[in-house]
Amino acid sequence: MASYCMTVTRLRLVLGEGARRLHVSAAFNAKAKVAMSRFEPGTSISYEKLHENIDIVRKRLNRPLTLSEKIVYGHLDDPVGQDIARGRTYLRLRPDRVAMQDATAQMAMLQFISSGLPKVAVPSTIHCDHLIEAQIGGVEDLKRAKEVNQEVYNFLATAGAKYGVGFWKPGSGIIHQIILENYAYPGVLLIGTDSHTPNGGGLGSICIGVGGADAVDVMAGIPWELKCPNVIGVKLTGSLSGWTSPKDVILKVAGILTVKGGTGAIVEYHGPGVDSISCTGMATICNMGAEIGATTSVFPYNHRMKTYLNKTGRADIAALADEHKDDLVPDKGCKYDHVIEINLSELKPHINGPFTPDLAHPVSEIGAVAEKNGWPLEVKVGLIGSCTNSSYEDMGRAASLAKQALDKGLKCKAAFTVTPGSEQIRATIERDGFSKILRDVGGVVLANACGPCIGQWDRKDVKMGEKNTIVTSYNRNFTSRNDANPATHAFVTSPEIVTALAIAGTLKFDPETDYLTAANGEKFKLEPPNGDELPARDFDPGQDTYQHPPAESGSVMVDVSPTSTRLQLLEPFDKWNGKDLEDLQVLIKVKGKCTTDHISAAGPWLKFRGHLDNISNNMLIGAINIENDAVNKIKNRLTGEYGGVPDVARHYKANGLSWVVVGDDNYGEGSSREHAALEPRHLGGRVILVKSFARIHETNLKKQGMLPLTFADPTDYDKIRPDDKLSIIGLATFAPGKPLKGVVKHGDGSQDIITLNHTFNENQVEWFHAGSALNRMKELQ
């Protein structure tokens, strides 16, 4: 353990020739503290404290620790007294910082305002990346977004200034890329209001996606609760080469574990193969770990991370990490709950989909599989970038393939879009010529934003309902996800494979074996992609896009107009009335997969993320009704007429009838959006009863005073009919580990008694009693 380390004591913005330059002056002290408030005032993390906590827990458990355990347990609020059992106990943690993207930050900041607290207790930032729709190109789309979303951007900027939250303006880039470039570092515990927050695991961080209410807890200085995660080990041997990329690692893992195989676990990569992957490549793998339901993913600190830290202006932090490396790698002999082994030297390029990110295929086989299943072979659009794959290395490798095509007189047969992950990446690939190559081959460079990855895409080349294929380097490909068209077959793969397939124009092309025809008729094969891990010169930071919160904010006004259609101040939910929930009407019995996209769609609905009543008009409009296999068409049991799900829910609420949703496995997988929990609560829902939940959504429901329950016997799902009523019995003695009783009342007068499980702990039971976690916070003030 080092006797000293460097503390960042001053960091300011200096504008010169339009560029943002970071100036760090540092001092040494004996307490091993790293001030990670890169731009905003706040607390600091102590590597010394991390080590102390790790040492306490290791001695208590009397065994070697995984890296995941070191970082998580190193942030325990009470390392001496905390009950620690993987997969069973709830941990009370002290995260180092909070990050919020603009779509979820609206509700998070509205909740924080409702708390009555004057300032955030930990360093926090807002990132404007979700509200920019891809239409024409980066410059035009950004300009239009600033005009259309002016009210929301102004709210977020002023709320940030008022409460001490840093504000990254529209055009700055995607939240996860900004975090990697500025805020992630080995050993940090960061929570973010986006499901792909685990991206930071590529820099040895534990970064976890949460709902806005969780973010409010941390910003309020309250210990944050997390069920003690299991740890899945992925041992990597061999090395990446040729057409195989870091993306193929997680595509392969997704095929093995499926979309729920990582639920309740941290995925920890280790082994000699790790060193063959760049830092940004590791981030790609961790990012898409969200698609297997993992709490997060992480890599051990190594020289690739050190190089990245040095290149992004954080050599001081790299030096500290070197001093404390023993705490930033797993202990020898540590045990994992499950181990997967992947030989990178044998791994082949993969492509996953359509309609789910765990349907894995080797690229060499996808053409035949598509023909067999009747999937469209023609690739209509290839899309590279997004938070998953928009690094300098990604863009360089894609450009190397585009250059080969151009040299042979070819352009992309498919439409082709490029999304830089940040302003720094955009400016650097523009300077180094990659953007020109990608444009010359037929690409359109979009704004530094999420864009089509989250459905912010004004697509014009196909009609709604027209069957077609797109290939992306994104992370998620649920039905209608990218373009709102349920007939679009979306496949996720690496940027290199996307580029190759866009050039070829068909899924029936394996770049490792197949030939293209040059403009002169000559047959040729693409050489494997190549690209530098990091730019030879320093990154070009591009335009200054950061707003620092003022030291004094008493005069800052945060206005929310009562007539606004975009923003709405929150009213507290009702407390529990002390009685069992009797005769809840089944609103909808959902058939099959029901993600947060089905529960609260994104795309055009993003504009209402700050207005609970308006956004509630999209509640469950994508879910399939088992009664008629239709979407957004359910029977109103009071009127006998059919209507949209939100309309029927509103009618029930107006008539004092509370309701329940019945669902299938892994209910609520996908995005961290808490609107999928807020909307049912707002429209009169009390219970969500399913076979199993995705982690984030289950927590979000608890936070809003809902009862997320699961069938003790999954076959009881079949006992519930769409016109049934359900009573929840036993709430007077509602307690951790104690099941509840469900009385299912059928229309013919018969009944079924079923056992209902839950995962509430004592604090969460208090949330239910108070009506929500926010209500409970106010009670304790």
UniProtKB/TrEMBL annotation:
Annotated compartments: Mitochondrion
Query: Which species does the entry assign this protein to?
Result: Oncorhynchus mykiss (Rainbow trout)
> Ranges for the Aconitase A/isopropylmalate dehydratase small subunit swivel domain?
585-713
The record's EC number reads: 4.2.1.3
Q: In which pathway does it act?
A: Carbohydrate metabolism; tricarboxylic acid cycle; isocitrate from oxaloacetate: step 2/2
Protein's job: Catalyzes the isomerization of citrate to isocitrate via cis-aconitate.
Q: Which domain of life is it from?
A: Eukaryota
- Report the residue ranges that make up the Aconitase/3-isopropylmalate dehydratase large subunit alpha/beta/alpha domain in this protein: 69-505
Q: Name one Pfam family in it.
A: Aconitase
| Descriptive protein name | Aconitate hydratase, mitochondrial
The record's comment on cofactor binding reads: Binds 1 [4Fe-4S] cluster per subunit.
* Predominant localisation class: mitochondrion
Q: Identify the GO cellular component terms for this protein.
A: cytosol; mitochondrion
